[in-house]
């Protein structure tokens, strides 16, 4: 039997790596805000998973997809800024979850619990995260162009709708995985903070995405070690470590 | 040798049920500079987008076959959201190292700028980089949306000289959108005054005060004056 701590650590590294990498794309155009509402919207799914005892990410996933479809529809229908729309989705998710989530299980839903990850989970996570990483790597340059200007991208013959769809789908999977690691409340921070730190320290795109990935993995690793020694919950420790790096980065800002 | 490169006939564009462009017809010859002039909200940017095929339209837009178009947008407000070097920005459009170097030379920038962060460029340098970006892939036509936006007055003169130089060097056809009248006289062979409809079309010398009053609805006075 492999040590539970090692499993948590490996799973955490996979998830945070993808989250940090994808997060670097989401920083532009204020998309990182979208992860917040999506994280919150997973709460009803997480609640169901906890009550009926199936995988948290599995429970979260359909709700993230629902959230993305809603946000996408709202954007087309109302032309309101994305931030305003996501706020609607966000509050609804929390409200629904707390209609039926037993308060005793609220902690795991809200701030995650990577220490419960099983060997099976870890084995599934590896190919999933690797695949996700490759997909993000593939769409990265075109997404940068789309984020700079959709018109410019379209004038280059980029199929903006297709890329946005793959991008949103990647966000959905990443958020669903992130919920397992740091919970519905903190998933936004998991994708947003490392990229913000990296932005402060990087001079070009290559440095920026690498640093974002590295800071994310580093925060996660340190967070899980802190969890082992202090027995405080891992999710908040990971996010606080990440926030600490961000504060330091402000000092060295370029 | 100077054949027609673009023919527009009875172009109509509606956005959200509102007519933005009505029955536009004009032609652009190869190597020509056409200025599209009009006040804010006249549909200038809409026209450029329709020409680029970014918007649905009724009527006819006919580019010469296999023509390559470079588009230089008005602003790129999101470009500074993430750190990116000039070199990486060029690579996004698939520029090779050789092409990048060639373009830098045409745009009068030196190679040191490649490693610079886009966010650290001066507005003049950024403008030149944007034009350079439009030149990647060696287009025959360049579409400019307000190339003066964000450039201080002192820099204006030089960017137009610069465009003129590029046009000669690369045998470019240039379509230029602006609300700045003075440009028309300095730079353009042909001018299209636009306010939803075409109000006048022809050589800038033929622009009359009457046209301009109609164009700007009497909101501005125009007088032609010489610069030192």
Produce the secondary structure layout.
The complex is a heterodimer of chains A (254) and B (228).
Chain A lengths: L3 H23 L5 H10 L1 H10 L3 H23 L3 H19 L5 H6 L7 H30 L1 H6 L4 H42 L3 H26 L3 H18 L3
Chain B lengths: L3 E12 L2 E12 L3 E5 L6 H8 L6 E6 L5 E4 L13 H7 L4 H10 L16 H13 L5 E5 L7 H18 L2 E6 L2 H7 L2 E6 L1 E6 L6 H8 L12
Parallel strand pairs in B: 3-7, 3-8, 5-6, 6-7
Antiparallel strand pairs in B: 1-2, 1-4, 8-9
- Overall structural class of chain A, as computed from helix and strand content, comes to mainly alpha
How many strands of chain A?
0
Distance from first to last alpha carbon of chain A: 47 Å
| Shape label of chain B | globular
Low-confidence stretches of chain A: none
**Relative strand content of chain B:** 25-35%
Q: Major sheet of chain B: order of its strands?
A: 5-6-7-3-8-9
Count of the domains of chain A = 1
- Tell me the radius of gyration of chain B: 18 Å
**Through-space gap between termini of chain B:** 36 Å
How does the overall form of chain A come out from the CA principal axes?
globular
Percent of sequence in beta strands of chain A: under 5%
| CATH homologous superfamily grouping of chain A | ABC transporter involved in vitamin B12 uptake, BtuC
Oligomer: heterodimer
Uncertain runs of chain B are: none
The run of helices and strands of chain A is HHHHHHHHHHH
Biggest interface, residues from each chain? A-B, 23 and 21 residues
């Amino acid at each position: 039997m492999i040590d539970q701590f090692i499993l948590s650590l490996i799973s955490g590294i996979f998830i945070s790596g993808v989250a940090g990498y994808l997060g670097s794309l989401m920083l532009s155009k204020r998309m990182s805000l979208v992860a917040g509402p999506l994280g919150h919207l997973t709460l009803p799914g997480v609640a169901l998973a906890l009550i009926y005892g199936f995988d948290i990410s599995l429970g979260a996933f359909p709700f993230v997809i629902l959230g993305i479809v809603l946000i996408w529809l709202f954007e087309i229908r109302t032309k309101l800024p994305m931030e305003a729309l996501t706020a609607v989705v966000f509050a609804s998710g929390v409200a629904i979850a707390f209609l039926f989530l037993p308060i005793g299980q609220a902690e795991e839903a809200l701030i995650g619990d990577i220490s419960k990850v099983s060997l099976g989970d870890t084995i599934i996570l590896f190919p999933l995260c690797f695949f996700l990483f490759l997909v993000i790597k593939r769409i990265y340059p075109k997404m940068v162009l789309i984020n700079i200007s959709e018109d410019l991208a379209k004038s280059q013959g980029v199929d903006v709708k297709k890329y946005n769809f793959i991008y949103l789908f990647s966000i959905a999977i990443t958020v669903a995985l992130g919920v397992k690691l740091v919970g519905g409340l903190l998933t936004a921070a998991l994708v947003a903070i490392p990229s913000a730190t990296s932005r402060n320290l990087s001079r070009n795109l290559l440095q920026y995405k690498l640093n974002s990935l590295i800071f994310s993995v580093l925060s996660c690793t340190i967070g899980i070690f802190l969890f082992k020694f202090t027995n405080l919950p891992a999710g908040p420790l990971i996010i606080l470590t990440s926030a600490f790096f961000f504060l330091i980065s402000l000092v060295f800002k370029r | 040798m100077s054949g027609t490169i673009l023919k527009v006939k009875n172009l109509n564009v509606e956005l959200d049920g509102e007519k933005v462009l009505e029955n536009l017809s004009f032609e652009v010859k190869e190597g020509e500079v056409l200025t599209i002039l009009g006040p804010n909200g006249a549909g200038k940017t809409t026209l450029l987008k329709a020409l680029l095929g970014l918007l649905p339209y009724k009527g006819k837009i006919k580019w010469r076959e296999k023509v390559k178009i470079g588009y230089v947008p008005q602003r790129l407000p999101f470009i500074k959201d993430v750190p990116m070097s000039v070199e990486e920005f060029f690579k996004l459009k698939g520029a090779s190292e050789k092409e990048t170097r060639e373009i830098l030379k045409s745009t009068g920038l030196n190679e040191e700028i490649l490693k610079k962060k886009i966010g650290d460029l001066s507005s003049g340098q950024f403008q030149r980089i944007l034009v350079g970006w439009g030149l990647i892939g060696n287009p025959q036509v360049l579409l400019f949306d307000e190339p003066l936006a964000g450039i201080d007055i002192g820099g204006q003169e030089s960017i137009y000289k610069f465009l003129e130089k590029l046009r000669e060097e690369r045998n470019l056809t240039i379509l230029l959108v602006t609300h700045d009248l003075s440009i028309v006289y300095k730079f353009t062979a042909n001018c299209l005054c636009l306010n939803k409809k075409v109000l006048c079309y022809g050589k800038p010398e033929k622009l009359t005060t009457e046209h301009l009053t109609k164009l700007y609805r009497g909101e501005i006075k125009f007088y032609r004056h010489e610069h030192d």
